[in-house]
């Protein structure tokens, strides 16, 4: 089975649509959304509606911190995120708010675990920004591959039979064999707000038969999204971020 | 900690037969499986209890790389097992022994050295094309199919340039087999496909002379010496070894990768075209360099940290392509031939390591006995060769990267396509004659080459002038 894993869509309609169009070309049987469907971006209604539609068609969706913050304000969020959230909240329908706040924290398919931030204490929204920070995720579960988002920077970390963790370079666009002698944690890059220096939308495809993971990048029309952000009066830093991907 | 392999054991549907081989790091077993008729072997790493890092990582590297490889030069993988029960890799069984015995009986007859060397280089080039550098080439790792193709085994030290290198992060000591390891591998490089060229050179040296070019060092310190100490020239050991073969061997054994063959295909090309090998000082050498030269080299090399390496295996191969230029020497095609030469010169600007094989085809007749002499009584083959060389004047390719071949065939397109395939040609450059109704119906040589070649083909056509189009 081929699984497309999308995360951190952040109300970026153009990026979300571009990635879904790319997914369509890749013979994918299952879609998993790792949360943060809304927040930051100018199109929360459309993105949320599209996610609900995908969920209705069998996609698995887990909750991200921005999704949770729609119903329950999160005081730990930075000022930009909070301003964007205050802008987002009144735009969502009651049905959409119920969908976002009712999402589960994790999903599993076979020996794959899907979570927004980290496998350990997922509700604490911990950032996996290094191999060391992935260690607790490996400790708390038995799953062979853990997929998470939240950081907006793609990362691949392995844990060998002696429980040594190591970050592996990501060959963008080329499949990495996730050999079974190790356990793996993949931080999938953001669809709607990449922060690794490339503005293209990120996602990943896991092929469970070949046991290979591919990190993908898809170009999209950033200019349109940026124009919408500015028209909506959202913080300018969000627009700059989409243009630079950093 | 885990299950140990033994005869009769069953795992994931595989039944272990007899133990075929026991090496330092792994055992090899004959196995059967209800779903497979072909003979299979299982490789099981010898993992001692506790922390056995190198063996484990080597096994993981092989598990990552081997299943991605395809083609006749690699064993086909049918199953892999992780550490939960017993780690293993099952592949098709290649019958017969490795090349080891043959190498122990070296020196081999000249014809065998050349023929084996070419087949070994072909296998290595196929691997490089698939983004993999073997990094542990030695006679034990070459098996042979009944059809003659060499099969490369043991990818425990290999590097795939598109997947994470598990070995790079774990160990800082140089890895490889001491008699064959390249100088840059000693300096910890794991990204240069030309390291495999060096190992090929060391093996050819051994096969031709019966000796290791750098002895058989026991310690790492002994390996370092090859950075400044040149091997005894093969012709000093085997006086009747031809100069061109010494040229090939010593070129492959150059310390700086930039001075070696740039691809295995280029090395194979020389092995299969001995008369066209350009001889340099390497060919004539009959003794090792003198004390002064070696001392100067030692002063320079002992502090060397590394050599310039390519960005990837792929970039190295595409930087040093083999291009076939099919030249039509007939009088009316002169302007087209000039255009072809201009194009070659232009391509050399962007790909300076390119090798150019100039080819001309004599079309023979199926039935009649061909007259090998032309109207003036000149030998046709020779006169074409002279013509080709004349055409190539002005192509500035130093040393040895320009060759001339005249082929004879009833079907010129087929001759070009075959030659390109056998010589791992990356790119064919040829001219097309102008448009004409006859050509459209009978088909042209260039269109057949474009349709049937395995590599890129660029077709050059002269822009039709007003009056020639009207004619």
Automatic annotation (TrEMBL), chain A:
Residues 1-209 form the Calcineurin-like phosphoesterase domain. SUPFAM superfamilies: Metallo-dependent phosphatases (SSF56300). One of its GO terms (molecular function) is phosphatase activity. It comes from the Bacteria. It holds the Pfam family Metallophos_2. InterPro entries: Ap4A_hydrolase, Calcineurin-like_PHP_lpxH, Metallo-depent_PP-like, Pesterase_MJ0912. One of its GO terms (cellular component) is cytoplasm. Transmembrane segments: none annotated. Signal peptide: none annotated. Belongs to the metallophosphoesterase superfamily. YfcE family. This is Predicted phosphodiesterase.
UniProtKB/TrEMBL annotation, chain B:
SMART domains: S_TKc. GO terms for molecular function: ATP binding; protein serine/threonine kinase activity. Keywords: ATP-binding, Kinase, Nucleotide-binding, Transferase. CDD domains: STKc_PknB_like, USP-like. InterPro entries: Kinase-like_dom_sf, Prot_kinase_dom, Rossmann-like_a/b/a_fold, Universal_stress_UspA, UspA. Residues 14-276 form the Protein kinase domain. Pfam families: Pkinase (PF00069), Usp (PF00582). Belongs to the universal stress protein A family. This is Protein-serine/threonine kinase. It comes from Gemmobacter aquatilis.
């Amino acid at each position: 089975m081929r699984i497309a894993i999308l995360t951190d869509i952040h109300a970026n309609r153009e990026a979300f649509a571009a990635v879904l169009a790319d997914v369509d070309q890749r013979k994918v049987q299952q879609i998993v959304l790792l949360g943060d469907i809304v927040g930051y971006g100018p199109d929360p209604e459309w993105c949320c509606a599209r996610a609900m539609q995908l969920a209705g068609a069998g996609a698995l969706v887990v909750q991200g911190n921005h999704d949770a913050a729609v119903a329950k304000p999160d005081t730990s969020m930075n000022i930009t995120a909070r301003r964007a959230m205050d802008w987002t909240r009144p735009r969502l329908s009651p049905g959409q708010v119920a969908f976002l706040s009712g999402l589960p924290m994790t999903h599993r398919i076979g020996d794959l675990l899907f979570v927004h931030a980290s496998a350990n204490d997922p509700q604490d929204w911990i950032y996996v920004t290094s191999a060391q920070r992935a260690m607790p995720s490996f400790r708390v579960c038995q799953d062979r591959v853990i997929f998470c988002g939240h950081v907006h920077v793609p990362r691949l970390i392995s844990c060998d039979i002696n429980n040594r963790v190591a970050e592996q370079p990501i060959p963008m666009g080329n499949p990495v064999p996730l050999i079974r002698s190790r356990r793996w944690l993949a931080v999938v890059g953001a669809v709607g707000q990449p922060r690794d220096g490339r503005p293209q939308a990120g996602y990943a495809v896991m092929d469970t038969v070949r046991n290979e993971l591919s990190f993908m990048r898809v170009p999209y029309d950033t200019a349109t999204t940026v124009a919408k952000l500015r028209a909506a009066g959202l913080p300018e830093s969000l627009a700059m971020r989409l243009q630079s991907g950093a | 900690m885990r299950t140990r392999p033994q005869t009769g054991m069953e795992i994931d549907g595989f039944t272990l037969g007899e133990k075929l081989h026991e090496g330092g790091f792994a055992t090899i077993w004959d196995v059967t499986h209800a779903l497979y008729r072909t003979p299979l072997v299982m490789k099981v790493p010898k993992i001692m209890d506790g922390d056995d890092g190198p063996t484990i990582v080597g096994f993981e590297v092989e598990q990552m790389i081997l299943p991605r490889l395809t083609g006749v030069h690699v064993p086909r993988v049918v199953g892999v097992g992780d550490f939960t029960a017993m780690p293993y890799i099952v592949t098709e069984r290649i019958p017969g022994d490795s090349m080891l015995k043959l190498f122990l009986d070296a020196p081999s007859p000249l014809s065998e050295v050349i023929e084996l060397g070419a087949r070994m280089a072909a296998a290595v080039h196929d691997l490089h094309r698939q983004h993999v550098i073997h990094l542990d080439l030695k006679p034990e790792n070459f098996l042979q199919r009944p059809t003659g193709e060499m099969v490369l085994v043991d990818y425990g030290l290999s590097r795939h340039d598109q997947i994470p290198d598990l070995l790079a992060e774990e160990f800082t000591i140089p890895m490889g087999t001491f008699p064959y390891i390249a100088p840059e591998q000693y300096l910890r490089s794991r990204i240069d496909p030309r390291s495999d060229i060096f190992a090929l050179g060391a093996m050819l040296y051994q096969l031709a002379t019966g000796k290791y070019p750098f002895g058989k060092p026991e310690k790492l310190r002994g390996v370092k010496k090859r950075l400044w100490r040149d091997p005894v020239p093969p012709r000093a050991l085997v006086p009747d070894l031809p100069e061109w073969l010494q040229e090939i061997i010593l070129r492959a054994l150059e310390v700086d990768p930039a001075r070696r063959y740039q691809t295995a295909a280029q090395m194979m090309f020389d092995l299969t075209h001995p008369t066209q090998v350009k001889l340099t000082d390497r060919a004539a050498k009959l003794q090792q360099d003198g004390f002064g030269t070696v001392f100067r080299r030692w002063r320079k090399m002992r502090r060397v940290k590394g050599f310039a390496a390519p960005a990837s295996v792929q970039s190295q191969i595409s930087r040093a392509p083999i291009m076939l230029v099919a030249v039509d020497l007939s009088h009316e095609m002169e302007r087209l031939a000039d255009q072809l030469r201009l194009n070659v010169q232009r391509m050399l600007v962007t790909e300076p390591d390119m090798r150019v094989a100039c080819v001309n085809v004599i079309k023979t007749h199926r039935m009649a006995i061909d007259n090998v002499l032309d109207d003036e009584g000149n030998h046709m083959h020779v006169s074409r060769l002279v013509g080709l060389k004349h055409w190539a004047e002005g192509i500035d390719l130093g040393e040895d990267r320009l060759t001339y071949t005249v082929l004879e065939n009833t079907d010129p397109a087929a001759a070009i396509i075959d030659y390109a395939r056998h010589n791992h040609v990356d790119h064919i450059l040829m001219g097309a004659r102008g448009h004409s109704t006859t050509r459209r119906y009978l088909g042209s040589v260039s269109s057949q080459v474009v349709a049937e070649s395995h590599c890129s083909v660029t077709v050059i056509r002269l822009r039709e002038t007003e009056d020639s189009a009207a004619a």
